Amino acid sequence: MSRGIEYFNARLWGMRSFFLPEALYQSLLAANTRDEWTSVLRDTTYGEFLGPSLEPNDSRVLFRAVDSSIALRTHRLTRLASGRPAVALRICLAEQDLQNLLTIGSGIHHHSSPLDIVSGTLAGGLLGSEQLQALSHCHNTREAADYLTTWGFPYHSVFRSSLGRHPDKPLSEQRLDLNRGFLEALIADARGCAYPVILRFMRERVDRINLITALMWRSLPSDRAPSEFFLPGGQWIQPGNFSRLLAASSLSHVISLLPPGPFRKSTDRAAQKLTDPTRISLFETYLEWEIIHRYSRPLNLDPLGAEWTLGFLLRLRREGIRIKQSLTRLLYEIPIDLFLEMSAYA
Fold first, then answer.
1. Of 72, 189, 45, whose CA–CA distance to 80 is shortest?
2. Sequence-ordered strand ranges (E) for the chain
3. Cα gap 20→28, rounded to integer Å
């Protein structure tokens, strides 16, 4: 029997109690040993995945515990949803898969260790924790594409197409084509799911990419015109103002050229947090947090719409990322002040 969005939202409301309070985040960040870090999570929803003891120097157990808890909750949602809510949920989960595949592709390209790759992903999409682990061990991205095809991943053809025919295709072009193809598919699905908030969020994802491209286009391959890196489908950045953004001389100038609206407000708030306006990668992280906050705050949640679905998943994503970030800081012994400056941990 197909259940409506009211039933699904009621179940989501009941699952809010499992989110960690802010005080626990700060305790995770302040932990000086793995035992201290683990003890903070022991009595939370992550505790059951930590096990009774830890193998010496095996940090994979800790990252896997975070992924397993996140994956369990998202998998539970897929069992609860049916009909149109299930379509909206699948689109939201697939958007997280896009971010994971971008991270995995970059990690494989740079010959990163599987642990480093997995630490930058989050099992909050259609791909589960074990699948992310398998992809992190791939020797090349074509092997990863074969895995996705074998598993029947809905967007496997988009990932394979982004690789191109030549093995030496630049990573920047692979990432651009993966974003282009994946978001085109997600936006098409969002147009048919009948929940406007899902379409707005996906279009804003395109806007965010185009904005960062405009800020960093001088580092792109010199044999390509900047306009070739424009992604269609956004709401706030169209081909005309994209050209003007490319000609802007600074971050503040770029933001001033954006049309008034919630996206520009988010870019303003993200820019205000920067101490160095040339640190575009940090600005990108701040902007992502601002957008996640805007779509997940209670005032924006319509009990008869998909706002609760998107808001819950974005809040869960933020939680998982922050937990993994705190663990990464601990393992690499990064001073807290430096870590906060580098990671936009917020």
1. 72
2. none
3. 11
Q: Half-sphere exposure of 289 toward its Cβ, with a 13 Å CA cutoff?
A: 18
Contact by Cβ (8 Å): 78, 187: no
Mean pLDDT of the residues in the chain: 90
Could you say which DSSP state residue 54 is in? -
Task: Pinpoint the alpha helices (H) of 34-170.
Answer: 34-41, 60-80, 83-109, 114-119, 129-136, 141-151, 156-163
Decide: residue 139, CB within 10 A, 0-12 exposed, 13-18 middle, 19+ buried: exposed
Judge whether residue 217 has pLDDT over 90: no
What is the per-residue pLDDT for 262? Answer: 96
CA distance 167 to 244: 34
Q: How far apart are CA 208 and CA 216, in angstroms?
A: 12
Q: 10 Å Cβ neighbour count for 11?
A: 15
Element of type H or E holding 30? helix 22-30
* Domain locations along the chain: 5-343
Cα separation, 183 vs 65, whole angstroms: 29
Question: What percentage of the chain reaches a pLDDT higher than 90?
Answer: 68
CA-to-CA distance for 201 and 236, rounded, in angstroms? Answer: 12
Closest CA to 269 of 290, 285, 294: 290
Q: Please return the burial class of 227, using the count of CB atoms within 10 Å of its CB with bins 0-12, 13-18 and 19+.
A: exposed
pTM of the model: 0.91
